[in-house]
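$ fold --in a.seq
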Amino acid sequence: MLLQLAIQLILPSILLLSLWRACPKSRLEWLIHFLAILAAYFPIFLIARWDFTCYYFRYGFAVLLFVAGFRGYRKVTNLTAANTSQPHLHLHVERGGDPGKILTGEGVPFKLGGRFLVRNSLFTGN
């Protein structure tokens, strides 16, 4: 009976805490982690004898699982270059436009260090 309680209460709590505290670096990493936790929790949800604890714990853990998963997904979708904490520089070259106002002229392609930079390119000055 003690093992049953541990499987029903402690294991889902550890899985939820793992999902809540995770810091995935990409959406794929988040998805793999979420699916692994879902695969571990699903048999507990279906097979465990919830009459030992409370039938509503099973649904409470399921709701918390999706809340923690949504929170993790939100953390991953906020991983963009605009939210970086590192120093960075944005360069714009334009022809014409209003002096003193940016992005009002025609954009002009330019080379930096002998190459055209595209979105998320890294340039290290030597």
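$ fold --in b.seq
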Amino acid sequence: MKEHRTVRTDSEHGGRQASSPASQQSEVAQIRKPPVVLMLLGLLPCLASLVFATTDTKLSPLTDTKRRPGLQFERHLDFHDVRTRDLVPQLVSEFYFRNTGSETVRFGEIQRSCGCMSPALSSDSVAPGETGVLRVPIATAQQSPGKHDYLLTVNYTDPEPQQVVLCVKAVFPDQMVVLRPRALFLSQSSNSPIRHAFSIDDFRPDPLKVVGVKSGSSLVKAEAGSRENLPDGGASTEIDVEIPGDFPPGRHVFPVEVVTDDAEFPLLTMPVWVTGPARPADQDVSVKPQYAVLVANRPGGEPEFVSVDIPSSWEVSHVEAWPEELDVRYDSQPASGSQRHHLLLQIRLPETPKMRHLDGVITIHANESHDLVTVPVKLQWL
């Protein structure tokens, strides 16, 4: 019987056969030697840089292709902390600007986040290199205590259409004079009078007293009502307003002024907006600009002009102005088209008003006062 022997190699046990020292060094050298292809790939960036550096290629200089707006404001934010100073009837923010472009800047509409602001520009256009200012008065009695943000969007052309947003921030104290609401918005389409009221809330320890009430229009009646003490101090006074029946069509605004015995708030103004019946389509009215701005304490200055387009069938009887110091003159001529008539109002202040009015109004009476046009006037005190 033959004897069979099985010879197992080291590889069958998971090991390797022993090799000589010379063969081991050869294997290590083969492991450490990098492939030629990898070496060439690593040198590619260096070769590309060398070719780029030795090539005579001139690159175009970097240029700013975006056109900058022509109007530059000195600042875009103004802040008032009324808690740290005396309370006054009006806050005024001033935003100075310069035309840094090569074309004339022409201003368009200024959009307001609050009707309590009456912005006024030093001029309607600014030539290259010239400066100007935008003044923004805010009536404090139309605000409530606490923090407030007011935004203005100034539209202009340079000659491309542009916009810039300005912000006014204010903090008002707890003890202040407040008109509630900020403005009266009434609708009158009946033949019977309607009555409404607004209040003057004075939270100060020594509240003001009402000594008189005046209306900026012969169509609106106003008088002082009841007065009562507030729970936390101060007093509240009601002012009653009456709008007659058969009110003229359209939307109109009239100031109601309250005269007080207070040295800081001698005069308070409530804007009263009245919407009568809707006008027929062929009886539409156009007013540009929507309001006039005058400097009250610089009498005899340049007049403000307002263009008013009315139906040619209207017969203007007279023009009413408030305050009484306002001087209004107008020229009448046919406008473009046979169905329109054009009025150009010239509004001046020959003398400084006796009272510190902030709001006025021009009322155009037509067709025996069956039709009206009202033009608000903002008075600024510098």
